[in-house]
Write a structure and sequence with these properties.
Blueprint (H helix, E strand, L loop, with lengths): L1 H32 L6 H27 L3 H30 L9 H24 L5 H25 L7 H27 L11 H21 L7 H33 L1
Helix pairs in contact: 1-2, 1-8, 2-3, 2-8, 3-4, 4-6, 5-6, 5-7, 6-7, 7-8
Length: 269
């Protein structure tokens, strides 16, 4: 019976991985194939809004089913709040580009929502890291933290070196550009630690949300540099990474909903 249960979990995980890969390829193929065309901006914005919107909706389903009691109840409520804030940010960004015709609106009110989302997302990351991160060696924590600090120092230095922002909003834009890597460096620590500690449980062998966060930090880094250097070329590759990140958040929510919430209800019955 135990072996059968393990095989079912393994099969479900394999199917989810396959579904995630297919979804990423499908969405990113549309973005890639329209790169450089008149449809690029529209489809890029729609793809990001659609993927983060789907993840936000699914997060509300998880919160509704699990409620907000206990560590995971509060953690997934925080994740839901963060995803919704990102949805608002992506929607505002899309409105600026598609309706107002402002290409790469930076800085904008969208940045306020993106940055605000780091608070609940950080709560989720560090809260769940305490649970899944048991047994992580202190030496690994020191190495990852030091690497994150080096990444931050290098990234901020690059921003200072290549910044070409001018005008009244220059200081605001520069401050926002620095805020992103600072927050990313903080959150990448629990993300990487959990990735390195994966595989110690059948249900946690692939920490989806932490993978999603690492992808998002990569996209943030590329976008941040493009903004401070007034880079105006196609940024479809950044959109592709954001889409992959948002779809990974979805995969994590699907896995959690199926393997924890619904299966736990079956056990109670």
């Amino acid at each position: 019976m135990e072996q059968q249960g393990f095989l079912e979990i393994k099969r479900a995980r394999r199917n989810l991985v396959l579904g995630l890969i297919i979804a990423i390829v499908a969405v990113d193929s549309i973005v890639l194939l329209t790169a450089g065309s008149d449809l690029e901006a529209m489809l890029s914005d729609i793809s990001r809004i659609g993927t983060i919107g789907a993840a936000s909706a699914l997060s509300l389903v998880v919160v509704g089913r699990q409620k907000i009691k206990g560590l995971f109840g509060r953690a997934y409520l925080a994740l839901s709040v963060g995803l919704i804030l990102w949805l608002v940010a992506e929607s505002i960004w899309g409105y600026y580009e598609l309706v107002l015709g402002i290409e790469t609106p930076f800085p904008s009110i969208a940045d306020a929502f993106w940055l605000a989302a780091y608070i609940p997302i950080g709560y989720h990351m560090f809260g769940t890291a305490k649970f899944f991160g048991k047994g992580v060696k202190k030496s690994i924590i020191i190495i990852v933290t030091a690497a994150a600090a080096m990444y931050l120092a290098f990234y901020v230095q690059e921003i200072v070196n290549v910044s070409e922002l001018e005008g009244a909003d220059a200081l605001v834009a520069f401050s926002i550009s620095v805020a992103y890597p600072v927050l990313d460096a903080i959150l990448i620590v629990p993300a990487v630690l959990i990735i390195t500690n994966a595989g110690k449980g059948q249900l946690t062998s692939i920490p989806w949300v932490f993978v999603a966060m690492i992808l998002l930090i990569i996209a943030d880094s590329l976008l941040g540099l493009s903004q401070v250097t007034n880079f105006s070329s196609e940024t479809y590759h950044i959109t592709m990474i954001y889409d992959a990140s948002y779809l990974c958040f979805m995969a994590g929510l699907i896995w959690y909903n199926k393997q924890f919430i619904l299966d736990m209800r079956k056990m109670v019955k």
